[in-house]
């Protein structure tokens, strides 16, 4: 990668039309095609995640996301990193380290993968939002903030698969 190549910051999430994203520190749905898309988009990239979502991933998979470096944002300062996990004490610091690693590896996109607190804090730095829009009303306890897509324009939209638990669409938003 040339020095001039910029590393983009992308948010990747699924939300209902009323912006519910989670329940009981887990996803309120099981959408296999969306999970495969998550894996395909993030494979080989650096991901930035909040401590609560990180723990949710560990309890679901029993290990960190394979094939990706995970940067966990936590106020529990001084935790040593282990394996593919690096701890950072703020969102700006996490994004800065993520972009540096990504650029050093010759790649150009880091992904913020939640949850609500981390999306909200990273939003001002986001270039792109990959949004899986779930066409349903679902009970939840984690939401995106009101008006969070202000300042972004819809750049792409694709129907999701038929025959899963809920219907959904893949949307991509770009800043501006
Ligand atoms: N639908 C989706 O696409 C999607 C994706 C991801 C997650 N989720 C859902 O989102 C929910 C979790 O979201 P959440 O908001 O509760 O938690 P979160 O954003 O995953 O993590 C919150 C934690 O991040 C750390 N943190 C937040 N702001 C910080 C700051 N400024 N400086 C340092 N550390 C900071 C704190 O960790 P410490 O307490 O350790 O200090 C805080 O407790 C779950 O239900 C999850 O399933 C949904």
CATH class: Alpha Beta
N-to-C SSE series? EEHEHEEHEHEEEE
Give me the CATH superfamily. Dihydrofolate Reductase, subunit A
Tell me which CATH architecture applies here: 3-Layer(aba) Sandwich
Our count of helices gives 4
So what's the overall shape? Answer: globular
CATH fold-level label: Dihydrofolate Reductase, subunit A
| Overall pLDDT confidence | 95
Structural class, from secondary structure content? alpha/beta
The level of helicity is 10-25%
Give the strand order, joined by hyphens, for the main sheet.
5-4-3-6-1-7-10-9
Low-confidence stretches are none
The biggest beta sheet is recorded as: 8 strands, mixed
Description:
The protein has 176 residues and is α/β, with parallel strands linked by helices. The chain has one domain: Dihydrofolate Reductase, subunit A (3-Layer(aba) Sandwich). Helices cover 24% and strands 31% of the residues. It is built from four helices and ten strands. It has helices at 32-42, 51-61, 91-104, 116-122, and strands at 8-16, 20-22, 46-50, 69-73, 85-88, 109-112, 128-134, 142-143, 152-159, 168-175. The protein has an eight-stranded mixed β-sheet with strand order 5-4-3-6-1-7-10-9. Helix 2 (51-61) links the parallel strand 3 and strand 4. The protein is globular and about 40 Å long. Bound molecules: NADP nicotinamide-adenine-dinucleotide phosphate. The site of NADP nicotinamide-adenine-dinucleotide phosphate has 29 residues, from strand 1, strand 2, helix 2 and helix 4.
